[in-house]
Amino acid sequence: MTANPSQGPLAGMRVLDLSHVMAGPVCALMLADMGADVIKIERIPVGDDSRQMLTPSIQGESAAFMMMNRNKRGLALDLKKPKGQEVLKRLVRDADALIENYRKGTMEKFGLGYDVLKGVNPGLIYCEISGFGRTGPLASQGGFDLVTQGMSGLMSITGEGPGRPPVKVGAPITDITAGLLACIGINAAYAHKLKTGQGQRVDTSLFEAGIIQTYWQSAIAFATGVSPGPLGSAHPLSAPYQAFETRDGWITLGTSNQKTWGQFLAILDAPEVAGDPRFSDNAGRMANLPALVAALTSRFKHRTTAEWLALLEKAGVPAGPVLSVREMHAHPQTQARDMVPTVAHTTAGRVQTLGLPIKFSGTPGAIARGAPVYGEHGREILAQAGYKPAEIDALVAENVIAEPSQSSGAKSS
Q1: What pTM, to 2 d.p., does this model score?
Q2: Overall domain count for the chain
Q3: For 108-113, which contacts have Cβ atoms below 8 Å and span 24 or more sequence positions?
Q4: Mean pLDDT lowest among 53-57, 191-195, 379-383, 398-402
Q5: Residue 302 belongs to a domain with what CATH number?
Q6: Is 203 an active-site residue?
Q7: Is it the case that residue 130 has pLDDT exceeding 60?
Q8: Of 17, 37, 96, 175, which residue is the catalytic one?
């Protein structure tokens, strides 16, 4: 993606990103990729905690930080100081949205809570992302992806099967999903603002992000009164719908209805499976899943992954290989969808990142800027807010804002 991000569907939106690590930064990077001008505001002296995640790093820059913060401009600002609070209020005047994921009460302690900032800008969309939301008995409790995966039910349905230890989803799914929910919420509030001029508070959490991943399992629990357990790669409502081992790897098979089951049997060449009354319909296959898996596994090991994929594609049966992350990066479909673009970073040079997963025909998004080095755009941002050079010099001298030359503090604890 090489287009100017200001040409995206959110061109003209300005966002202040006070969040750190993952959920908030995911929200902000999605907005930035869709054209919003996102200002990443980091604390002094260490910046976003993900700057400390230096294994691995590229030219001393955290790969994790660069992934989560590309397409943003950077400002290092001390919100504990009155002059830092005044800087933020001045930035809020021209902002459409602000994102923060501090513990409850932190922004209020700085005198920068929603009730104060909406007085500065009634059109401000104030988005809070927390572990458990801003209401309820756990509103003041911090939350992490591992904790919320456990509490949302996700770890009870993830893993190899009954009797095995609980397993988390490999990706930080509640963090990422909370960021996506916040992005959806901000865009909905922005649509309302464009119609009325009024902003509002947007509140979502990692806990709720995990809960909505249980749509299928919650439907089963509501209907039966029983909590479903883990099924490995299998589906709770359809069979066979899981991974199978081949002669040289693994393949996923998605026979999600009776039609695809018939198409699968046509190329399986296993009369003992096709003629078994236990497998004649989906209800029977689900009730006899271990026997079905055993019968199919022995068959799948007769051919390679590539051989099975060719047969299944010809038969119209959904299937695919199980790829490593690097294999996924190199896959022709990934490349065709521009999901591994390269972007220029001030100190790390040309680095790979992940692309925008939403394509717009008229207002394409873009990834045109690497993540900011610590405090990289401070002077530019303050000048746009009306500060004069001498005023910016004074703020630097008083350590209210930090400049890139002071970035060593942001790379060490």
Answers
A1: 0.93
A2: 2
A3: 110/79, 110/80, 110/85, 111/85, 112/79, 112/85, 112/88
A4: 53-57
A5: 3.30.1540.10
A6: no
A7: yes
A8: 175
